[in-house]
Structures are given as C-alpha cells and as structure tokens.
Protein 1
Amino acid sequence: MTLPNYKFLNINSEDQGMITAQLNQLYYGECPIVLNILPLDDKQEEALSYIEEYLSGKQVYSLPYPVYIISSTKHYYGHLNIVSHQDLLPNFFDFKSRQLNNKEELIYNRIQLKLKNIRNILPKTYLPILKKYTNDHKEIYELYHEQKFWDDVLSEIEGIHGK
C-alpha cells in the first residue's frame, strides 16, 4: 500500500462533453486531484464554471481529499482551489511514494476500511452532519480572524496612546 499522492489530469478541450468524460474517469475521495486547464488559454473561465458546476453536483467538497485546479485566471471567487502553477500546490501530498512499514500499513488499512464504510452510507444521511460540522469550523475560523483583527487594532491604539 502507498499513501495518497496527487493525481493529475490535463483538460485540453473546452467542450462540456469532453470535460464531463474526463471528470467521470476520476474517483473523488481516494486521493487529491489536480486538474490542469492551462492549455485552454482564454477559455479557462468557462471551463472553471463548468467544472465547479460538475463538482458541486458530485458533492466532492465534503470528501476528505481536495480538488485543485491549475489555472492562470486572476479573478475567481468560487469554491474551487485555484493555483497558478504546480509548484504552488500544498507539499503535504507531494512526496515520493514508498512502501509503508507495518504500523503505517495497519493505520492506512483502518482508514481505507472507514472510507469503504462511508461509501456504503447514503449521502443523504451523512451530508447534513458533515455540512454542519464544516460550517461550525468555518464560523470558528471567521471569529478567530475577527478577534485577531481587533487585537491588532487594540495593540495599535495602545502603541499610540500608551497603556
């Protein structure tokens, strides 16, 4: 067994049928996926909107491994993880594959068993729970950044006026 590594897919056509055919070949949730749409040049925004629609229909945003898109689009405000170059991908999944030792393989097998059990559960039962869980974490993240902002403002005021 090997650990999940990036799976790359080059999308060379802006045709929706071709993109759908290429995206249907992937199995989401087993490893992080990188879609390269740089060859599309000026058709990247259209491809991005179609890919976002496709992925939201497949509900891949709630799966354990992310989907990244390599694109030169500057102004994109959707749910997709966009990077401009392959070197900007997170290094967490970028490693040379090696054989796992016994302890690592036992842990990996347990994770795979849990993943298979999750696949057997109907999405209607676990998606609301997962959505609530992610929304709670997003709220914590936003509150943390708001607190950090106000702490910075307070420290600036104290710096100007003294304690």
Protein 2
Amino acid sequence: MKFDASPETQFISAVYSLLLGFLLGILYNIFKIPLYILIKLTAGNKHYERFVNIMIVINDIISSCIFTVVTVIFIYAANDGMIRYFMLVFELSGTVISRFTAGKLIRKLSSKIADITYGIIIFTVKSVKKLFKPIIAYKRAKDAERHILRTINNS
C-alpha cells in the first residue's frame, strides 16, 4: 500500500487526531471517577493516604497503557504504520482542549457522582450496623459473661 501524503489526507488525519485526543481526554476523566469516590471515602484518614496515592498511580498507568495502544492502532490504521508527528501533536492538543472544556464538566459531574455514591455507602453501612447491632450486643454480653465466670472460677 502506498501512503497518501496529500494535504487533504493530512488535514483529515489532523482532524481525526484532534478528535481522538479529545475523546481520550474525556475517557481519562471518566476513569478518574472511582478515584474521586475513593478519595471521598478516605478523606481525613491518614492511614489510607498511601493507598489512595498508589491507586492514583495504578489508574494513571492503566490509562496510559490504554491510550498508548489506542494511539498506535490509530496511527497504523490512518497512516499504514507511518508515524506522523503532527498527528501526535494534534492528539495532545485535543486532550488539552478536552481538559479545559468537557473535562471541567465531567469533573463537576464526577464530584456529584462521588457525593451520591458516598451517601449510598454511608447509608448502607449504617443500615447493616443497625441490622447486626443486636447480634453484636448479644455476643459482647456472652463474652462478658464468660469472662466473669472464668474470673470467678479462677479465684
């Protein structure tokens, strides 16, 4: 296959690269939604700070791997495997545009989703605690009774 280097083809490649970068930027923000939820759940707890940081790194590594594979497949499909640096520049530009346009909206929605999810999790935990409270109280009473009986028998 012969590569077509006409200006029209390069323009179309640039537009598709810009669009791909924009979509990858949106996808990156969507990937961060679980992190926002995790940060909301562990806020103020120093014990989970390191865990959250590790999860952020893992999320970024997975996102980078996926985006790299998508970019390589796109380059192979659009240019028969020839790397055209302007395509990478336009893809990066699309990602930056996404960050400052749709990315802001997605981050606001992510915050709302994190708040709603946090509320659901807290409600569920409180409901489960309330459900098991009599069982836990009974077990504690039995443990206290056994302890008292052991203390009496040992004296």
Protein 3
Amino acid sequence: MAHLFDVFRQAATAVRPIIALVCAAVILLFIKQYTEFTDRIRPRPMQVSESRAAGQYDVRITCTFEARGNAFGRPALRVKFRDRVLIERTEAVAAGELVEVQDVPDVQVGWNEFLIEVTPAEDGSVAADSAFSLDNTAVAEAPTIARAVNIQIRRDDLIMAERVIWSSRSGPFGELVRIGVDQTAKEHEH
C-alpha cells in the first residue's frame, strides 16, 4: 500500500506544473470574457455637439430696491453667461429701473445657465451704526426688508423664463437661472 502511495505522489508532482498552467489559462479566459462583457454593456459616451439656437435672446432685470456696489469691489449688478460677464454695472441701479442685456451671444440648443448677482445698497444709518458699533440696539431696531429681483429671459420678445428671487439679507445675493432651448423651436414671425 505504501508503494501505491509513493507512485501517486510522484505522478502528482509531475502533473503540478500542468495543473498550474491550466488554472492560469482558465483565469485569463475568465478575465478576457469579463472585459468583453463590460465593454458590451457600458453605455457609449454621448457626442455633445453644440449648435447655436435660433432667435435673439435678451435678459431683463428689475430690482425692487436700489442696488449699488459695495466697498469690497462688488458691482451693483452682474450677469454672467457661459463664464463670460455680459454686464457689470458698478454705478447705482435705481429701484424699478429696467436693466437689459440685448442679443446674448452664443445661446446653444440645450440647457443654458445665467448667473444673476445683485448687491443691495447699504442703508447708511443701519450699516454705520451696526457694522462697527458695540451697541446692538441699532441691529435690533433695524427692520428686515425683503428685496426682490425680477428676471426675464426672452427670445424674440417672448418670455422663455421668468423668475423672482427674494432676499431678506443685507448683503449681495444671486440666482442661477436655467433655460432649455429646444432644437425644434420654430422661428417666431413678427
């Protein structure tokens, strides 16, 4: 019986390299099949082709308060589109004054985002008394004033998007306004 065990052990040691090669080949085959499978089920990246939208796009902004640049260099009103500044008003914008950006360039089919930033004028008495004073009574007596900014984005004088943003804070505030422009949008006749 011992002799049979020795024969089996010698045969097993001779076959070990073959078993290792077969195992390695099976593992490589599984890896190849897995990568082919994941390539088939992976979604293909979309081709992004930007095409210019038809029509003239305008942005109209009206504030219910006076907007004025502050001491930190912020403008009274700034409108950005595609990381470009369309308008930046450093002089005061009166309450109710219409600020318009006409013929916005490079509006594309798909989603377009406009960033509107406004800096309200600081009320001299409240700002001077509360910002640098150790007396907190001026802050407690100061009324909270809600401020609103009406934003319209128009295409050929038709409103594409309208948003009113509100703020009760005294500092600068803003809003990101998104519009979707459809490729099948028809030209409007005047």
